[in-house]
Design brief:
The model has no long low-confidence stretch (mean pLDDT 95). This protein is elongated. 75% of the residues lie in helices and 0% in strands. The chain starts with 8 loop residues before the first helix and ends with a helix. With 124 residues, the protein is mainly α. It has a single domain, classed as de novo design (two linked rop proteins) (Up-down Bundle), CATH 1.20.1440. Pfam families: 23S_rRNA_IVP. This is Four helix bundle protein. InterPro entries: 23S_rRNA-intervening_sequence, 23S_rRNA_IVS_sf.
């Protein structure tokens, strides 16, 4: 049994994604500091934050709810990465690495949500 959100691999990968996003956004133009850069950073921070908050809640239903929020933030990240690529702010292969990290977190979130929903359906 998981005692802390820190033990969840999806939280750990989410934290890695935050670090990668911050590294990528350091290279954005200065005039984007309060625009796309800030939005991307906030969405990235939201992913592991919601995983941690959800795991710390008392019910599985609340955990699933927060994981769903994290998944929504991940969709924001994927969209914002695409925007940054189209604007020329994130070069190749950085964009491929960020997309791969985001996809990994997405698969892990989806798997955990499915697992927890099965637990709920079984009466847990």
């Amino acid at each position: 049994m998981v005692r802390s959100y820190r033990e969840l691999e999806v939280w750990q990968k989410g934290m890695d994604l935050v670090v990668a996003i911050y590294a990528a956004t350091k290279k954005f133009p200065a005039d984007e500091r309060f625009g796309l850069c800030s939005q991307l950073q906030r969405a990235a921070v939201s992913v592991p934050s919601n995983i941690a908050e959800g795991q710390s809640r008392t019910s599985t239903k609340e955990f699933v709810h927060h994981l769903s929020i994290a998944r929504g933030s991940l969709a924001e990240i994927e969209t914002q990465i695409e925007i940054a690529v189209r604007l020329g702010y994130i070069p190749n292969p950085d964009d491929e690495q960020l997309a791969a990290e985001a996809a990994t977190v997405g698969r892990m979130l989806s798997g955990l949500i499915r697992s927890l929903r099965r637990k709920l359906e079984a009466g847990g």
